[in-house]
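Subject: for your reference before the review

Hello V.,

The reviewers asked for a structural picture of the protein, and I figured it would be easier to keep everything in one thread rather than splitting it across files. Below is the amino acid sequence we used in the manuscript, unchanged from the supplementary table.
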Amino acid sequence: MNADTVVTGMGVLAPTGLGHDEHWKNTLRGASAIGPVTRFDAAGYPSRLAGEVVGFVPEEHLPSRLLPQTDHMTRMALVASDWALADAEFDPALLPEYGVGVVTAASAGGFEFGHRELQNLWGRGPEYVSAYQSFAWFYAVNTGQISIRHGLRGPAGALVTEQAGGLDALGQARRQLRGGQPMVLAGAVDGSPCPWGWVAQLSTDRMSRESDPVLAYRPFDAEAAGYVPGEGGALLVLEREEAAQARGAPRRYGRLAGYAATFDPPPGSGRPANLVRAAQAALDDAELGPEEIDVVFADAVGIPEEDAVEADALRTLFGAHGVPVTAPKTMTGRLSAGGPAVDVATALLALREGVIPPTVHVSRPLPDHTLDLVTTPRRASLATALILARGQGGFNSALVVAGPH
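And here is what came back from the structure prediction:
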């Protein structure tokens, strides 16, 4: 099994908690964070629920000079980077000038910032548009701002594959490590609920219009009727094992053992075979067979047709009821690119603690799916996990994580 990439730090900002300890505690007890939108007045929209990061006060974490030039999404990403590096007990100055890279993913960028500046343009005039609009909206802005904040001058990248981006960023970082880079800070923080971003998602007709938070997002359920969006994500400190040993890294959450991605362009996106190919290629990369996977963190869109595709793919790989399947994102909503990054952090914590976190709100799982869907916390001996993610437009990604040696 490949053992070259280890996770030595993590920074999580999710609707379920600020920091990975709070997130894990609330996830394990099945505490859903889905509720009415508060970041803007959603009364006139058909979908009015979201998973919001509550209690995050940027002024408590960031210097005042950064606030006017950053979107809410980027502020969360900057704090996640602070927490990840602190958790790794790492000072970037200890490595050579180009020793630390940054790779992030985002679905669109700083929508909230851009929405406000467009209002200024049309309502007050061009002289009232912030000069920071030139980059604050950009999907690559998190990578840039994190690099500047911490002086990280190694290889940088930004990926845009919607939900799949949270895994693709980690896969790209892993490639850099295999090429000799000692450390990469990677992952995704995404999603700033605002009218502009809301309308963009509503146009896909995939968002749930249910007003009850308990009923709104129920993947694999007989009453599944769409997803609930959210905000947040996770950034991970990734190192080559020998680099982590050389600096005396105090902890290893686990290893990125395998990764793969496939593309299924429209029309016809959503073929089970292409998701199977991504998952099987990730297993091959990890040098593992399906029988060696202990739990799957599902993509779990919450749309009946897409849930059926994923269930069919899992049945093809593992057989009926062949592996425990969970979707803790039912507590947070789908966080665009940030969601799979949180899933990876959650999976690593699950391996460490020996417990599979639950899928909440699914009271009538469809028997035709033949999934071993975990709906209450389940103690288990866990050494490996497969995380799946699909981005709208045909992106399929799969990542295998394993416990530390």
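For the response letter, the relevant points are probably these. The first helix runs from residue 20 to 28. The mean pLDDT is 94.

Happy to draft the paragraph if you're swamped.

O.
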